[in-house]
Specification:
By secondary structure, this protein is α/β, with parallel strands linked by helices. It is built from seven helices and seven strands; from the N terminus they run βαβααβαβαβαββα. It starts with a strand and ends with a helix.
């Protein structure tokens, strides 16, 4: 049986990408383990901290959950054309546990932004970052103009159909 974990690379309590992720998870037929990264206790990466204190326990726990999973669904926000510093720090620490910590993992990436770009730059950056660590990004979904295309009833129909199709394909590929 496939084990899927999902998380958002944002530490905002009002993250639109977290809203998009949770909405997307409602279309999955397979069981998924949602992980809230916001409460993790992780210092900004430094070689000194790693050498004196070691890998933070929360990173070890997250790494273990990633190891146990077959697939990941990750929603990434965009700060200045890349993933947030919060999420970059997590990926930096994870890479210190194993330079191929995503090896063999199928990944569905989601993103949204308030603007027309739909966080495309962050999707591209994150795809390259995940490939570097052995992950296989098999599908991507970008939602532009979040407040116009996502409401109380979820996604606008043209985006909803596309997201449902991607999730179905993602599950079928596992």
């Amino acid at each position: 049986m496939s084990k899927i974990i999902a998380f958002t690379g944002s530490n905002s309590k009002t993250s639109i990408n977290d809203k998009l992720l949770k909405y997307a998870l409602s279309f999955l037929k397979k069981e998924v383990n949602y992980i809230d990264l916001k409460p993790l206790n992780i210092p900004i990466y430094s070689e000194l901290i790693e050498n004196t204190e070691g890998i933070p326990d929360d990173i070890k726990t997250l790494k273990s959950k990633i190891e146990d999973a077959n697939a990941l669904i990750v929603a990434v926000n965009e700060h200045n054309g890349t993933m947030s510093a919060f999420f970059k720090n997590i990926t930096d620490w994870l890479s210190r546990t194993d330079s191929e910590y995503l090896k063999g993992k199928s990944i569905l990436l989601l993103s949204s932004s308030p603007g027309e770009g739909g966080a495309q730059s962050s999707l591209e950056y994150t795809t390259n970052n995940f490939h570097k660590f052995g992950g296989q990004v098999v599908h991507q979904f970008s939602l532009p103009l979040f407040s116009e295309n996502f409401g109380e009833n979820g996604l606008a129909p043209k985006y909803k159909a596309h997201l449902e199709s991607l999730i179905k394909n993602f599950e079928n590929d596992l």
